[in-house]
Structures are given as structure tokens and as C-alpha cells.
Amino acid sequence: MANKGINRIITSIDGSSLSRRVVERAADMAATFQAKVILLHVRQKVPDILGEPYYQKVLNKYTDSANGITAPLKTLLEERGVENEVLVLEGDPAEAIVGAANDENCDLIVMGTRGLSNLQRVALGSVSHKVLQAAECMVLIVP
Predict the structure, then answer these.
(1) Which of 59, 73, 112, 118 has minimal CB crowding within 10 Å?
(2) Which candidate, 105, 108, 111, 119, places its Cα nearest to that of 42?
């Protein structure tokens, strides 16, 4: 199938049960369009108030957690023959997703309806809603 303009896909993963399904959908899209997938995990910012050695301990914990979340999903993409890379950022998830999609020149954002937030009662998670409002590229929301 000829590529119709989707060359780079960014998919946001947070370790929730929905993350695997989101990456599977991104892999399907990547296979269809022969696109690259960027796995994006946005972690919490380490509080600046922490001094050493506590700052480094917390940073190491966050880094280990990010690796634990991204590694199996990277393997899934590799097993499917999808070109990919991992990107770990810190801060506000919606801002990081939109910013990374712009910085990486992505044509599509693939993300879940909601992840590990406390907003389980909301039909569409606040991060998804913010990304839909701010994204300059197409957004695919996986239920």
C-alpha cells in the first residue's frame, strides 16, 4: 500500500492495562503505512527540593519504572518488525505528548482514552481531551 502521509507515529504509554492495546494499534497503523513508532512515556518530575542523595534515588526509581513500562512494548514492536524508538520525558503528560509530537514531526498520535489517572469516572480522560484540543496532527484515541 502506498504511504499516504503517515511516516511517524507517536504513542503515549503509561503502564496502564490499556498501554499494550494502544501500542498494538500503533503497530497496526505503522505496518499499514510503513511508519516509525515513537514510544513516549511521560514520568513525574523529580521534586527540585530534594537534595542529594535523595534526588538521585528518586530519579533512579523513576528511570527504572520507565524502563519497565517501555521495554516490553518496544519488544512487541520489534517482534512485529516496526521501526521504533523510545522517548521518556518528564512533566505534564498532555503538554509533553503534544510537544513531542511537534518536535518529532509526527503525523499521528495514538493514545488511550484514559490511563493511570484518578479520573476513572470521566468518559474521556483529561490528558486525552487536552491532547485532542492542542495537537497539530491527527489523534487516534483507543478505547
Answers:
(1) 118
(2) 111
As a whole number of angstroms, the distance between CA 56 and CA 54 comes to 5
Please answer whether residues 127 and 95 qualify as being in contact, where contact means their C-beta atoms are separated by less than 8 angstroms.
no
3-state helix, strand, coil in the chain (%, to 5): 45, 20, 35
Map out the domains of the chain as residue ranges: 8-142
Q: How much is the pLDDT for 115? A: 55
Q: Which among 7, 11, 33, 40 has a CA at the least distance from the CA of 141?
A: 11
Specify whether the CB–CB gap between 64 and 57 falls below 8 A: no
Give the residue among 135, 86, 129, 133 at the shortest CA–CA distance from 106.
135
**Contact between 76 and 106 (Cβ < 8 Å):** no
Average pLDDT over residues 32-55: 89
Q: What is the pLDDT of residue 36?
A: 98
pLDDT for res 5: 86
Residue 42 CA to residue 89 CA, distance in Å, equals: 5
